[in-house]
């Protein structure tokens, strides 16, 4: 079985790691294609080094740009790779432009596509990620859903065939790295932090970074809280803070801006934080798994289980709500096993093998 794995962003590097390990364990060396959507050291290379992900077989070097430009460049370059390599299957992950381009390039060439993390819905079509999810789910041959909720979302859209609740591959990655995560806390020592003495914050979505009112509300709220805030700032967020003349003000406050950190160091910061404020989907899920209360800087979430179980609260960019939840939010519920048991990657490869085996049998019967 020749499998091509298409990735391009930090969440996808995390998601692909356990799938790669499972394939290698079965003596299947996959074709790894990096679109280059995330490309600098902090956003890309450090993840490959830390997670022991092998060098990509192809690095397309697409880089940043508008959604249309980025997706179009990826489509052109991916088509060439797929025509040359002729994989039996393509796996795409998540909801980025790399996900959409990988799925489109494959189906146009009649190569079966599997979508890992299928069925997520925020029900907000203003989010480019939501459009990507919907399109990829409707053109994929196999849909690997991380939760029962995701399966239900697909069924409501009329998608029933080859839909499987396999668990969450990001959960696999976290569980596999838990010992290393707990063993080394040098990132805390380097920042002069002690356990549960600070709040962690990430802000990167366009709805918050490109809207000056939203960005101001979030920053003014955390400054007003007077809590110690550790803020690994996305390059786009830093750029916008400078555009809106907010950067210097924040630097002089209780908010400590640091460069983006590696995957494991981020998890260490998250595990030891009192609370996290974020507009990231992946961080909401990681916070739930690490039992860190999460304040989500969005009006909706695709990880509704974290809200239902009381470990995540949605505040949008409302300054008063943010301050209130910083001061008052205390989870009341208990975590459930909603993201699987750490065997999502194993489930995925088993199902791929079965799918291809059935395809071969169908071809043989047609020939007979």
Strands, count: 13
CATH superfamily heading of the largest domain:
Glycogen Phosphorylase B
The computed structural class is alpha/beta
Unreliable stretches:
364-368
Query: How far is the first residue's CA from the last residue's CA?
Result: 23 Å
Instruction: Summarize the main sheet.
Output: 7 strands, parallel
CATH architecture of the largest domain: 3-Layer(aba) Sandwich
Radius of gyration: 21 Å
* Widest sheet: strand ordering: 3-2-1-4-5-6-7
Count of all domains = 2
Q: Mean pLDDT, rounded to whole units? A: 92
- Level of helix content? 40-55%
- For the record, the CATH class of the largest domain is Alpha Beta
The proportion of residues in beta strands is 5-15%
- Principal-axes geometry comes out as globular
| Separate helix tally | 18
Oligomer: single chain
CATH topology of the largest domain: Rossmann fold
Detailed description of the structure:
With 368 residues, the chain is α/β, with parallel strands linked by helices. It folds into two domains: 3-167 and 343-367, Glycogen Phosphorylase B (Rossmann fold); 184-328, Glycogen Phosphorylase B (Rossmann fold, 3-Layer(aba) Sandwich), CATH 3.40.50. The protein is built from 18 helices and 13 strands. The protein has helices spanning 10-25, 41-50, 67-85, 97-108, 128-139, 148-156, 169-176, 178-183, 186-190, 206-209, 212-225, 235-243, 247-251, 263-272, 281-289, 304-308, 319-328, 344-367, and strands at 3-7, 31-34, 58-59, 89-93, 113-116, 142-145, 163-165, 199-202, 229-232, 255-258, 275-278, 294-296, 312-314. The strands form two sheets. A seven-stranded parallel β-sheet has the order 3-2-1-4-5-6-7, sandwiched between helices. The chain has a six-stranded parallel β-sheet with strand order 10-9-8-11-12-13, with helices on both faces. α6 links the parallel β6 and β7 (163-165). It starts with a strand and ends with a helix. 46% of the residues are buried.
